[in-house]
């Protein structure tokens, strides 16, 4: 790898730029619609570097070297010598097709393109490329520097060279790469979409937020659904739910309340130091506005059973559809990508243990079932 190109200069793109420059130690160029956005992105990257310096994780020499390796441009010709170009732009197929189209004309034949889409079809994103076979999905998890997973998405046209490059780069970034089929949400987001969709549906039914948090606690995830939504961004969360609802309307909820919360910007209220104090009162009012008269709130037990059965059903379908080849892939993805406690062994042993697998598909994921904690 000699030079990395990043399409986009927002917060996600700047997290990528920092990770790539730090781990690969090669020039990284970012771009966006105009110079002001590019400058803002460069500012974020310098801030990331300064943070690492302040934490004593890198020396000042390295901080200077990393800063010098990152440049910004509005001229796509500056991507000509990049051999890896990844996009981190708005989650809309047309926008992604356009930015790849603009840059492809300048790239060498063997350059590889990667998309960080959270749930869109990689095949569709590549539909307008001259060489769609060099496009691969390369899906990171928030916080990018911390979560040790990348889902490498093999779209129907992705060739072996692009796939091998993606696997090699993931390794150099210090991440574990799991190959997945090009289906909505890939692995982790499909499971999180089920969980978050149920959580938003529950509060839209008048279920108190605390009841939802209590219902999903036994799963052991480090963040409750609402903290997780705030982490990934309410707009991104709403988009992930919409994509799944569009693909599987009978099984996934979208959330009108979350759409409006995304416009508002917050679900949680924070103090001056950024520590969460509770739920933002206006956000609670927005959710209440979307509660249908006569809606029936769930109890902790009812919602827990819905979530567990929903997850067992979805994972069973993912295996039948060949999204991955074995339940262990899903367990590993959830442990590495969403912090499912490794001590519990992953999602499928849990669902076997609580009886959800038996209830939903009359069998268990594991034979014999994995006994253990929780
Ligand atoms: N943003 C950036 N960095 C953060 C952070 C945040 N919100 N929260 C914590 N960190 C960093 C800390 O700075 C620290 O870094 P350091 O080691 O360099 O100092 C490191 O994470 C560990 O911090 P803590 O010791 O405070 O860690 P915690 O025990 O509180 O764990 C966590 C933090 C790792 C974020 C944990 O809560 C977790 O695993 N949460 C689940 C996150 C998750 O599910 N992510 C996937 C979401 S789906 C997604 O992103 C896909 C997309 O397409 C939607």
Automatic annotation (TrEMBL):
Gene3D superfamilies: 1.10.1040.50, NAD(P)-binding Rossmann-like Domain. SUPFAM superfamilies: 6-phosphogluconate dehydrogenase C-terminal domain-like, NAD(P)-binding Rossmann-fold domains. Residues 3-183 form the 3-hydroxyacyl-CoA dehydrogenase NAD binding domain. Keywords: Oxidoreductase. It comes from the Bacteria. InterPro entries: 3-OHacyl-CoA_DH_NAD-bd, 3HC_DH_C, 6-PGluconate_DH-like_C_sf, FA_oxidation_alpha_subunit, NAD(P)-bd_dom_sf. Residues 185-274 form the 3-hydroxyacyl-CoA dehydrogenase C-terminal domain. This is 3-hydroxyacyl-CoA dehydrogenase. It comes from Pseudolysinimonas kribbensis.
């Amino acid at each position: 790898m000699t030079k990395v190109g990043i399409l986009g200069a927002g917060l996600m793109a700047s997290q990528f730029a920092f990770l790539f420059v730090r781990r690969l130690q090669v020039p990284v160029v970012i771009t966006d619609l105009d110079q002001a956005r590019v400058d803002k992105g460069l500012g974020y990257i310098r801030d990331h570097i300064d943070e690492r310096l302040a934490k004593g994780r890198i020396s000042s020499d390295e901080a200077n070297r990393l800063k010098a390796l990152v440049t910004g441009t509005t001229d796509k010709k500056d991507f000509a010598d990049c051999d890896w170009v990844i996009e981190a732009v708005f989650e809309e197929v047309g926008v992604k097709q356009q930015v790849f189209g603009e840059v492809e004309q300048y790239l060498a034949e063997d350059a590889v393109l990667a998309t960080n889409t959270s749930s869109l079809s990689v095949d569709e994103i590549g539909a307008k490329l001259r060489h769609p076979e060099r496009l691969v999905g390369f899906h990171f998890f928030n916080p990018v520097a911390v979560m040790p997973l990348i889902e490498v998405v093999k779209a129907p046209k992705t060739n072996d060279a692009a796939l091998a490059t993606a696997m090699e780069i993931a390794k150099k970034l210090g991440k574990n790469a799991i190959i997945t089929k090009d289906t909505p949400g890939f692995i982790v987001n499909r499971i999180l979409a089920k969980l978050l969709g149920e959580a938003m549906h529950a509060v839209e039914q008048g279920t108190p937020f605390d009841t939802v948090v209590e219902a999903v606690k036994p799963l052991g995830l480090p963040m409750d659904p609402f903290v997780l939504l705030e982490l990934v961004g309410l707009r991104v969360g709403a988009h992930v739910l919409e994509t799944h609802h569009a693909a599987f309307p009978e099984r996934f909820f979208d959330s009108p309340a979350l759409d409006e919360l995304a416009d508002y910007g917050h679900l949680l209220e924070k103090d001056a130091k950024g520590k969460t104090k509770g739920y933002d009162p206006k956000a609670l009012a927005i959710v209440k506005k979307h509660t249908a008269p006569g809606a029936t709130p769930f109890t902790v037990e009812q919602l827990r059973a819905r979530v567990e059965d929903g997850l067992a059903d979805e994972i069973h379908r993912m295996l039948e559809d060949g999204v991955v080849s074995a339940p262990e892939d899903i367990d590993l993805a959830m442990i590495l990508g969403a912090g499912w406690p490794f001590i519990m062994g992953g999602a499928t042993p849990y669902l076997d243990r609580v009886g959800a697998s038996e209830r939903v598909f009359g069998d268990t994921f594991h034979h014999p079932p994995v006994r253990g904690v929780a």
